[in-house]
Amino acid sequence: MRAALVVCPASGLGAAARVAGSVSAALRESLDSLDQYVPQSAAETDAVLKKLVDAGTEAVVVLGGDGAAHAAVQACAETETVLAIVPAGTGNDLARALGLPKDPVEAARVVATGLAGDRRKRIDLGKVEGGGWFATVLCAGFDSAVNERVNRMSWPWGPRRYDIAIVAELAALKQARLIVRTESETLELAANSVAIGNTPYYGGGIPVCPKADPADGTLDVTVVGKASRRDLVRILPSLRTGAHIDHPAVSTLRAKSVSVAADGGWIGYADGERVGPLPLEIRCAPGAINVIAAQAS
Length: 297
Known about the structure:
alpha+beta; 15-stranded mixed sheet; globular; lipid metabolism; magnesium; Diacylglycerol kinase (ATP); ATP-binding
């Protein structure tokens, strides 16, 4: 198999760069051929990934966080190139959804074994009309405001950053009139947030769409309706377990296509990356990408 390792050295505040040698060695234990690339900017990462896919590289292994994974998804979607993730970022939500170990070297061994045995798995992606692909969750409202704050923060590192951003955004809580339309139903309500999940997790392991399955041809939608700060404080702890969907203020839908609009100037984020203001049209693209997971089907 012709494979390439793309190291995103800034991921995880330099964690990817620190483990790159060990990850490369672990991959080479099972792979006969592995080329390595270390792009130094987001633009260079995009260019390297596109060049590799256009050249027919059989597998691209990305060492980095969800931002690096998001870039790789854009390049590998609807191609035959297999995408493998070795987590070394802050959130690592795609790697988590694929069942990969948290430790990058252990994950690299799982990936290498999967590639050597050609144990690829085809999963769905979300597609934003007129925009890009996403593999995990697209969110807007309170959730995206948290994302915007997290992206401005330099401390602390890891999931704690999201916890601090959540507390800060509670103080600036604003509801908006939200309209969610699917192929079969419409919700129109005062709401705090909406999340559209291809996989369950965002924000470093929060299962906001706990039942989302990236191989079922649908997207899961979680809407947090009108809720006070006190209500949200009560809901937030249950987010870590997925029990929030049982709260009366929370509505869930499942759909092949979703449109979301709000009157509060909400910004959409997908895979932790800024997409743009609502309204947005999103659809599920079944089986749009080949990946390596801990358990292939």
